[in-house]
Amino acid sequence: MKTYERLLLIAVLLSVSAFAHAQSVPISIYPDPVEFGSVSKGSTSYLEIYFSNTTEDPVVITAMSITGTNASAFALPGNACIITIAPDSTCATTISLTPPAPGNMSANLAVTVQGDSTPINVSLEGTGSVPLAITSISPSSVYVNSAGFTLVVNGTGFVKGDVIDFDYGALTTTYVSPTQLTAQVPSSDLTNAASFYVYVYTTGNQYSNYITFNVVALSPYIQSISPTYVVAGSTPAPITVNGESFMNGATVQWNGKTISTTYTSSSQLQFTPTKSDLGSAAIIPITVTNPPPGTTSQSLNFNVTYPATITTLNLPANNIVWDPYAQRIYASLPSSYGTNGNTIAVINPQNGKITGYYFAGSEPNQLALSSDSQYLYVGLNGNGSVQRFILPDFTPDIDVSLGTGYYGNNTAGQLAVDPSDDHTWAVAIGGCCSNALYFYKDSTELPDYITYPYISDMVWLNSSTLYGYGDDTVSQVAVTSSGGTVSQQWNDFLEGSTISYAAGLLYGNDGRVFNPATGLLVGSFDVSSSCCYSYGQVLPDSPINRFFDLGETPFYTNFGITSYNLTQFTPVAVTDLSTLGNYTPAAFIPWGSNGVAFILETCCESTSYQTILVKSSAMLMTSSTTANPVPTATSLSPASATHGGWNFPVTITGSNFVPGSTVTWNGASLYAAYVSPTQLTLYVPYTDIASAGTAQVVVSNPTPGGGKSATLTFTIK
């Protein structure tokens, strides 16, 4: 046989053998080959593959394996149709491709069928491509009712046939390059403010990440600012403005000044204030302006808060008073306060420590301190009496019964002591149906008292005048050695529950200010209510020209102390107290030169909860960012005292005094109240005149600038 005839015979035999084997294959596989197309590097694409029994007998698939150059890039699930397939039945499984790198990927799927020694082979093919990803879109936002536009999508891994999807609606897409696609967005998609997801998908059902496209209104809207406050003088850090309809290119205005702004999304902007922006506490209006033809948002206040140290004492005090001579706060504690219930707690406000508890009697409540701190008057609600204690040892003195009313023992709703006579005092009977204001000389009830109008709070101005308040009525009470009588009254000028007095004016805790000399309303502070629609507590301070309102601030939704210019009625700044929660404040008092204290009560129940100490030299203006002058002290009044006497005030006259001025007495610091640039009041305790001698008095002003005055000598005879 010739060579060519031999080769022809071999070819025919091989063809016949292959045909015979094909005819004997018991299953068909679809698709064959398995083509994944383009798959992004590192991502996974899945395709279904079907195994169909083409015989009239069951077929058992015993094994499947992937071999070849890129076998590791392809994978089968755990079950992989290694089962018995009934006649005319099909098993479906999934095969995946995860390209480890760009480039062609190929392998072979070998399927072994029981009874057939030769595996059935299926080609696996795909191409690893640059990852399909969107990096940016342009524009990223447009205004409502804008004209249709060309959307440019930038990214990687784009191929011809890829489609831009605009919020689940396919757009007619133009392939520009592997890094750019474009599509026309019709104006019909831009009629309402909305956010759209923009992504790209391939013919092989590969999906990119999405980027949000925004259709925004012309007018932006601010919902919130985070953080809610920044402490004055702190290091600037990013601040986030949250809202709606922020256009790319929108800017933030800080107190009317445009500040560098980072656009994050249509609902978020970021900016960082400068160091000078945070130089002092302030209420800062924040607005957002969209680029033309956009407009400016509403204003939302941001709190550059006073630096403050807040000390929380778990003392459910009923009332508190400040002793300027001992430099201590006295707090009345109910019987429910365990071992130390029914006592007066002595608090050192500088460190928040309790220095002692002194038994007072049954249910101590209202407190009043004589002007020289010799006597502490305590309303004992459990006894229906007023107990007087001699300080500093809380020695029990007189105990005066308040009689009985419709519902049992009368109790002290409010107490006050004549500022010129430690032994003359007044009590407003508290509770229902007992509205009288009584006057006493020690334990003797004076004949003149007031039953109408109702008085629930009072301020004793001087030896002859007391102002009472209750049910929106202010009463001027003429005080004599016989007691008190109403000399004049004014209705509906003030509201709320308490009054305060400063520099000839009466301040209601509703924010209104009344001048009893003219009978006219002077003005009103914009204060807000606390929980249960009650007003907060107020504290006027005329020497530093400030008015403080304690409660939920009208400029934010947080609990805090709002400082106002006393004479102009304008807000200055806020001390944020949001960490204290939402409670009703009571008994708001100053202590020292740079602190205030108050009681928190549970909302709507008037149950004492905690005693709070706040120290803030910036709020009380005892610190300054500008240079202070050197003080000059020229005289003391009195300039002498007899040793062994009791507490007394000394007036220091001079110049260049500031709210932060301090005074030393023989080198020891005493409390000195700022009155004016030319006057301080020094509170000298009895312990400092126990023996004859002299005291060296020096006034100091704090830095920056500042300094010490010349020494004045006080004689102790």
Task: Explain the layout of strands and helices.
Layout: H1 3-24, E1 27-30, E2 34-40, E3 45-53, E4 59-67, E5 74-75, E6 84-85, E7 90-97, E8 103-113, E9 120-129, E10 133-138, E11 141-143, E12 149-156, E13 163-166, E14 170-171, E15 173-177, E16 180-185, E17 194-201, E18 211-216, E19 221-226, E20 229-231, E21 239-244, E22 251-254, E23 257-259, E24 261-265, E25 268-271, E26 282-289, E27 300-305, E28 309-313, E29 319-323, E30 328-333, E31 343-348, E32 353-359, E33 364-369, E34 375-380, E35 385-390, E36 395-401, E37 404-405, E38 408-409, E39 412-417, E40 424-429, E41 437-441, E42 444-445, E43 457-462, E44 465-470, E45 473-480, E46 483-491, E47 499-502, E48 505-508, E49 512-515, E50 520-524, E51 537-541, E52 546-552, E53 559-565, E54 571-576, E55 584-591, E56 595-601, E57 608-615, E58 632-637, E59 640-641, E60 648-655, E61 662-665, E62 668-670, E63 672-676, E64 679-684, E65 693-701, E66 707-708, E67 712-716
Parallel strand pairs: 2-9, 11-18, 20-27, 59-67
Antiparallel strand pairs: 1-3, 3-7, 4-6, 4-8, 5-7, 8-9, 10-12, 12-16, 13-14, 13-17, 15-16, 17-18, 19-21, 21-25, 22-23, 22-26, 24-25, 26-27, 28-57, 29-30, 30-31, 31-32, 33-34, 34-35, 35-36, 37-38, 39-40, 40-41, 41-42, 43-44, 44-45, 45-46, 47-48, 48-49, 49-50, 51-52, 52-53, 53-54, 55-56, 56-57, ...
